[in-house]
């Protein structure tokens, strides 16, 4: 295993290290968790960690990449199950998927949390965080276009819906408002209805 290989090719020890690091990074923060603590909790050695991942920064980036991929898979499956047809319901189902995803995520958005620690640096995890946020925006743009909003308007509306999505994530935790996603979804429904009404008239 080299540090260039993807997570699915990890050895059992490497997978254990990644799983352990992922839980610790999310629960305690990236800077607060050292490689010694990760290795000890995973029942392996610091040398094994460096052999598998090359550096702590690379391990952090892989943690974020794997979480990003799992979120993408989760929301795609949720939409296909709960709102398979294009339309407003499918757009709003992203908020429902997010609520389900965050049900046991007591510290909110892992990407926002990570950016608070590594943003403004050359850390390889920053690109992963930015890609995740851009993917959320692109998802809303695509779904609202599929719902019937013209492309030029879809770009603007998709951005606004993504901002509601991201703002609700922060407000749920930092703002102490567990109902933030409910309000974000309602605001998104209003924006979407207005856009579709304008298109129909």
TrEMBL record:
Keywords: DNA-binding. The keyword DNA-binding applies. One of its GO terms (molecular function) is transcription cis-regulatory region binding. SUPFAM superfamilies: Homeodomain-like, Tetracyclin repressor-like, C-terminal domain. Residues 34-53 bind DNA. Residues 11-71 form the HTH tetR-type domain. This is TetR/AcrR family transcriptional regulator.
């Amino acid at each position: 295993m080299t540090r260039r290989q993807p997570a699915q090719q990890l050895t059992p020890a490497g997978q254990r290290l990644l799983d352990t690091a992922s839980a610790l990074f999310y629960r305690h923060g990236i800077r607060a968790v050292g490689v010694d603590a990760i290795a000890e909790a995973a029942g392996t050695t610091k040398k094994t960690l460096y052999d598998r991942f090359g550096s702590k920064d690379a391990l952090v980036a892989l943690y974020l990449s794997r979480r990003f991929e799992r979120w993408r898979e989760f929301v795609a499956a949720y939409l296909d199950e709960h709102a398979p047809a294009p339309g407003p319901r499918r757009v709003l189902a992203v908020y429902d998927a997010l609520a389900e995803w965050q049900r046991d995520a007591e510290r909110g958005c892992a990407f926002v949390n990570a950016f608070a620690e590594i943003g403004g640096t050359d850390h390889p995890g920053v690109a992963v965080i930015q890609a995740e946020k851009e993917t959320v925006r692109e998802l809303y743009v695509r779904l609202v276009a599929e719902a019937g909003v013209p492309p030029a308007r879809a770009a603007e509306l998709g951005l606004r819906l993504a901002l509601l999505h991201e703002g609700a994530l922060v407000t749920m935790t930092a703002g102490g408002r567990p109902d933030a996603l409910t309000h974000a979804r309602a605001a998104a429904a209003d924006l979407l209805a207005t856009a579709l009404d304008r298109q129909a008239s």
